[in-house]
Amino acid sequence: MFHSKSIISSGLALIVLLISTAVLAEIDNSASQKPSSEASAKNLSSVQFKNVANTGSDSVDETKLRIGPGDPLAGKSKAELCFGCHGEDGNSIDPQFPKLAGQYGIYIAKQVRNYQASIRTHQIMSSIAASVSDEDLADISAYFASQPMMKGASPSSNQIGKKLFENDDLSRMMVRCNSCHGASGKGQNPRNPVFPVIGGQHKDYLLRQLLSFRKGDRNNSPGGVMNITVHRLSDAELEALAEYVSGL
Ligand code: HEC
Ligand code: HEC
Predict the structure, then answer these.
(1) N or C: which end of the chain has fewer CB within 10 A?
(2) What is the per-residue pLDDT across 125-154, written as a single tens digit (0 to 9) for each?
(3) CA-to-CA distance for 188 and 110, rounded, in angstroms?
(4) Which atom of ligand 2 is nearest to the CA of 245?
(5) Which residue has the CA at smallest separation from atom 37 of ligand 2?
(6) pLDDT score recorded for residue 63
(7) What is the pTM of this model?
(8) Which atom of ligand 1 is closest in space to residue 132's alpha carbon?
(9) 21 lies in the same domain as 136
């Protein structure tokens, strides 16, 4: 029993590594179509790749890695279009709009590109995304990424959510959330923008995304990993998770 469990866990660790590698390669490709960000995005992904399994810090400036290839100063005025819903510092007030504060720049840009390509769809966001140019997108993403990171108002005592967040349930193909999203849901480390910051995000938004991954309406996660993860979780479990994660 112990033995087969450890084989499964190393299999899971491998999946996490493969997802990182595949997505970082994709980021690399899309960056090379844009000459201005090519060099920095290339550097970023090679550094990240080397460090996927190594969270030890080195001399690389972590804030720069989180921000990605854009210019946060230039991004501030370009981001005005987004403030009405996402908040001036990326901490939206209305829970139907996700917080973007301290989210990885590369993750923000990936989502907007997914809306542009209809890989992710939403009535409002899809039409806004269509009006953003590639260069503006890098700078806007950098601006939100540079803001102090989203944080829950108060820690949740939801034990069902905590248990699911921290423990695999292999009988249901559920890999614990913290293995990808980090111990407090703040991502893995600044070099790996594949796994978004979810800790401290609005509960309503989190729940809507989890339901949407389960139903298959949202299917833009690499390898469908989020669809698989929540496929067999109940409404009550998703609600518990959203509650717990929003407090982190
Ligand atoms: C009129 C309101 C509105 C405006 C303005 C707006 N957004 Fe959004 N945004 C939304 C909503 C609603 C969602 C959630 C959509 C969903 O559920 O897929 C969203 C989602 C997002 C996401 C996905 C977040 C995540 O965690 O996956 C990103 C990134 C984003 N918006 C970026 C932007 C940027 C950049 C701008 C400005 C160029 C902008 N938005 C302007 C309403 C808005
Ligand atoms: C094997 C890795 C992995 C595991 C395990 C995992 N996630 Fe994810 N998750 C991802 C990736 C990668 C994305 C980014 C999807 C994308 O690129 O659009 C994501 C996206 C999300 C989002 C959307 C964030 C946003 O801003 O829109 C939520 C919410 C989320 N995960 C919650 C969870 C919860 C809760 C669990 C545990 C039940 C979990 N995840 C387990 C990899 C994982």
Answers:
(1) N
(2) 999 999 999 999 999 999 999 999 999 999
(3) 17
(4) 35
(5) 177
(6) 86
(7) 0.88
(8) 38
(9) yes
Nearest CA to ligand 1 atom 33: 82
Task: Indicate the residue type of 188.
Answer: Q
Do 171 and 123 lie in one domain? The reply is no
Q: Residue 62 in 3-state DSSP?
A: helix
Same domain, 184 and 136: no
- Structure tokens that stand for 18 in this block: 């493969």
pLDDT of 96 strictly over 60: yes
User: How far apart are the C-alpha atoms of 228 and 119, rounded to whole Å?
Assistant: 18
How many angstroms is it from 98 CA to the middle of ligand 1?
A: 7
Same domain, 16 and 123: yes
Residue list, ligand 1 pocket, CB within 6 Å: 81-82, 84-86, 96-98, 100, 108, 111-112, 122, 124-125, 128, 132, 140, 196, 208
The reported pLDDT for the residue numbered 209 is 98
Domain that includes residue 138, residue range? 2-52+61-145
Query: Cβ distance 219 to 232 under 8 Å?
Result: no
Q: What is the CATH number of the domain that holds 47?
A: 1.10.760.10
- Read off the pLDDT of residues 214-237 as tens digits, 9 standing for 90 and up: 999 999 999 999 999 999 999 999
Token pair of 29 as six digits: 């490709």
What spacing in Å lies between the alpha carbon of 209 and ligand 2's midpoint? 9
Higher per-residue confidence, 33 vs 26: 26
Residue percentage of the chain with pLDDT more than 90: 72
